[in-house]
Specification:
heterodimer, A: 255 residues, alpha+beta, nine-stranded antiparallel beta sheet, five-stranded antiparallel beta sheet, 20 strands, B: 14 residues, mainly beta, 2 strands, rod-shaped
Amino acid sequence: MFEALLGNGLILKKIIESIKELVTEVNFEVTSEAISLQAMDASHVALVVLVLRASEFEEYRCDRPQTLGVSITNLAKLLKIAGNDDSIILRAEDEAHVLTLVFTGKNNEKMCEFNLNLLTLDSEHLGIPEQEYSAEVTMSSSEFSRICRELTQVTDTLNLSVDKESVKFAVSGDIGTGSITMKANNSDKSEEKLILNVSDTVSMAFALRYLNLFNKASSLSDEVVLSLSPEVPVVLKFAFDLGELKYFLAPKIAE
Amino acid sequence: KPAQMVLENFFGKA
C-alpha cells in the first residue's frame, strides 16, 4: 500500500503543469523515502528529475517500493479538477493498476475521487554522474524566465557566459545581435539578486525553446540555480518545501 | 551553426 497526503495540493498541480509539455508518460518511483521520477523528452535533449521527500507530506506510507507508470497528460487533466486550496491524497495498492486521487476542499465540503489507469512503460534511466560544476548561478526565477522569453524574440539559441563577476545572456539572429549582462550582487530585492560561484569561466549555447519550457517551474520557487560546466548538460534546479525539480539540457556544440 | 547534442552524448544508460 502506498498513500501520501499533501495538504497543499496546489504544489502538485504546479509541478505537473511544469513538466507536462516535456514528458507525456513517466514512471514514478515510490519508496518509503520519496516519490521520484526521471524522464527524457521525446527528442532526448532534455531530462526532468523530480524528488518529493516523504518527510514533507502530512501523511505518508509506502509499505513496498513500486513503479507507477503514469500518463502525465491524463494526470494533468484530473489535477485541473482539484481546487487550489484542496488537499490531495495519492493512493495505490501493491502491484497497482490504478492510482487513486482524492481531492478534498478546505472545509471538507466537497470530495472528489478518481482512479487513473496506470501504464506499463519501458524505463530509460540515465546514469547521471555526481559532478562539480565550473559555474553556479543563483538568481530570481522570474527574472531568468523573463530574460529567456524576451531573447526568444531574437533567435532560438541562447549563448550563456559566466565569469567570476557576471553572467551574460547573448543572442544573434537575423534581426541583429544583443546581450543582457547581470553583475553578481547581493541586493535586498529578490528580482535583482545574483549569486555567482565560479571556479572557471564557462561559455555555452542552449536552445531557448527548452529553457522556456523549464521556466514554467518558476511558479514553484523564487530562485533558480543554474549549474554549468563546459560541454556537459546544464542543470536548472528549482527547490521548494516538498522537494526539488531539476531539468538537464544538452548543449549545442559547434561542429 | 552549432549542433544540438542529445543526452546520450553525455550520460550512459543506468
